[in-house]
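Deliverable D5.2: sample structural annotation.
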Amino acid sequence: MEYIKLGNSDLNVSRICMGCMGFGDPGRGQHSWTLDEEHSREIIKHGLELGVNFYDTAIAYQNGTSEQYLGRAVGDFAKREDVVIATKFLPRTNEEIAAGISAQQHIENMLNKSLENLGMEYVDLYIYHMWDYQTPLYDIMEGLNRMVKAGKTRYIGISNCFAWQLAKANALAEKEGFAKFVSIQGHYNLIFREEEREMSALCYENNIAMTPYSALASGRLSRRPGETSKRLEEDSYAKGKYDNAATQDEMILRRVEELADKHGVTMTEISLAWLLTKVTSPVVGATKFHHVDGAVSAVNLKLTEEETSYLEECYVPHWLVGVMAQNTVSAAKENHVWSVGDQKIK
């Protein structure tokens, strides 16, 4: 395993971050394919044994049970100071807004609950899960800064935002003396490269770590034709993100397969080896031992410039999907723009 500084922080993280959305009680969330605690613990322990020290979860994953499983496993299998734990919080609900709960109080409540779930006194990275269009940015940044000052999180990160939003937030933080975002967790992989338009350059210029989710496109970049899985069959959210562009992505997937055969490795290793040339530490979900093995092996696979270009050259622009498509609509409304050009939102 290789390790790297997480942006403008002093956190040394493994080049692979284990995504924990696949852990948690399937009866308490929106996903039926998640692992129970016994099997989650096995995967987490395997990751630790292979040198993975960076784990990403969220209070929203299976109603907090992902955090609970992760916290208990880390407590049993590792020293707290040897691991980097990231978790995330969602915006205020309409009910909280109606009740007059401030953003600052919401953030403190959410982090306190996450710390209770994890059984920890602090997290290393607290991530703003998605932009809150109903709350002033100042209130969000002040609330997060309070948590840093209180020692409940060492650093803060952000997920699912546009480059202008990240730039605006960190500019406000600098002006007010607040903690800045040290990382961005966006949607980025070999068949969805829209982060390269503006986000990549912003992060490179300001040493902000990119830790993208969906690193393997919900399994599409790791499976050969005809191969399937329970998640591929049942994850309607992932289907909505990728199925509409399946035809245009097919050529890229075939090239991944071709290079995997050439190197005698898996498609997972090729796909992640490419992504590792672009980002700090991709978030890779794992529900089987071989998922962890493939991700870790990718760290030592180096593609040539010709191979990298070969994988990239047939990419075509994609419409924004999932949370970011929703953000496009919200941003337009916030700025009183009621149509977004001729962009097709899916």
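Annotation notes: Strands lie at 3-5, 12-14, 17-19, 54-56, 84-89, 123-128, 153-159, 181-185, 209-210, 283-285. Residues 246-263 form the longest helix (18 residues).
The annotation will be released with the project's public dataset once the embargo ends.
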